[in-house]
Amino acid sequence: MASNTQKAYFDANTQASKIAEQFEMLQILNEEGKVVNEAAMPQLSDEQLQELMRRMVYTRILDQRSISLNRQGRLGFYAPTAGQEASQLASQFALEKEDFILPGYRDVPQIVWHGLPLYKAFLWSRGHFEGGQIPEGVNIYIPQIIIGAQYVQTAGVALGLKKRGVKAVAITYTGDGGTSQGDFYEGMNFAGALKAPAIFIVQNNQFAISTPREKQTAAVTLAQKAVAAGIPGIQVDGMDPLAVYAAVHDARERAINGEGPTLIETITYRYGPHTMAGDDPTRYRTSELDNEWEKKDPLVRFRKFLEEKGLWSEEKENEVIEHAKEDIKEAIKKADAAPKQKVTDLISHMYEELPQNLKEQYEIYKAKESK
Ligand SMILES: Cc1ncc(C[n+]2csc(CCOP(=O)(O)OP(=O)(O)O)c2C)c(N)n1
Ligand SMILES: [Mg+2]
């Protein structure tokens, strides 16, 4: 009797399978670099397609160099990005300069391509205050370490843009793990209620440090978390730069037309460790899983696609690699040349106006530093 009654109003299996259907993953380029969804193809010129590839190749080199600089003790905090290039760079590529990026700690590439000089990204990694001083006109925030906090801030920035009548969006990134935080829901809900021009990206790289996606939540998809906030949600192939670009481009159009925010889940993978602070992925991932994802590599499939169109070659790729290496060398030199950080530098860049206790500490350290 009880089970009959229950069945009448709630059938979990049907509900779950309907959700899986509704949030089916958008893909445009398959693993072989073939277009499988012509209708969803974004309008990008040959030059734009090449530029997107250049950025992905450059960023893969930046990741490799950052890892070795970290091992040499020349960088501080570093969260590897290889594997996530399509998710990170194709989403940034769909933005305009007026748009604001609110990144998480793994999202340094997007803010560099949005205008943060690379040497400043290196200084940020070292915890140097100059890394947090953003040049005028570069619409970014420094990467957030508190998981999910950037979602709430994004709702606020987006509402500010709306109130000022600026035709721009605020875009933010978190991970699969980030979707378990209260801030994640609060940000989406607030932006949804006020139709603020925000784009919420979840980069589902399958793990939150060592916690696999299946243990993170009972939800069938992460994109469906948009439903409770009353906003559209979409799941896209995060290894496919064209699918990511298309989804973000559409979300941006909707947002600047006053139709409110969108949640985009990009299905991706990080090849490296969580951060360079010492986790060992072989303790929580199998080599079979790594291999499976390497076959989906965004650079490989985009290279095939472009080569087929006569838009890419080994020479072009080598040029980008050499250019990236030179750039990185210059940037680290510039970071090394920044004056050594003093305690008073830290204190004086924390608040616009210092509270009394910090004023006292400032004086103490100033006296010590002048000795
Ligand atoms: C509020 C908060 N809780 C815990 C942590 C510690 N922490 C740092 S990264 C991380 C995992 C995040 O995983 P995910 O959101 O999937 O992002 P990913 O690192 O995979 O890009 C955790 C729990 C934190 N930084 N902030
Ligand atoms: Mg993750």
Number of helices: 16
Task: Work out the helicity level.
Answer: 40-55%
How can the largest sheet be summarized?
A: 5 strands, parallel
Total number of strands: 7
Q: Mean pLDDT score, rounded? A: 96
The small-molecule ligands in this entry are: thiamine diphosphate, magnesium ion
Taken in chain order, the helices and strands follow as: HHHHEHHHEHEEEHHEHEHHHHH
Level-1 CATH class name of the largest domain: Alpha Beta
CATH fold topology of the largest domain: Rossmann fold
Q: What is the domain tally?
A: 2
Strand content: 5-15%
Shape: globular
GO molecular function, one term: pyruvate dehydrogenase (acetyl-transferring) activity
EC number: 1.2.4.1
Keywords: Oxidoreductase, Pyruvate, Thiamine pyrophosphate
Organism: Bacillus benzoevorans
What does this 3D model show about the protein?
The structure is a single chain. By secondary structure, this protein is of the alpha/beta class. It folds into two domains: 298 residues, Thiamin diphosphate (ThDP)-binding fold, Pyr/PP domains (Rossmann fold, 3-Layer(aba) Sandwich), CATH 3.40.50; 30 residues, no CATH class. It is 49% helix and 8% strand. The strands form two sheets. A five-stranded parallel sheet has the order 1-2-3-7-6, sandwiched between helices. A two-stranded antiparallel sheet has the order 4-5. Strand 6, helix 11 and strand 7 form a beta-alpha-beta unit. Helix 3 crosses helix 4 and helix 4 runs parallel beside helix 11. The chain is globular and about 75 Å long. The mean pLDDT is 96. It binds thiamine diphosphate (TPP) and magnesium ion. Thiamine diphosphate binds next to strand 2 and strand 4.
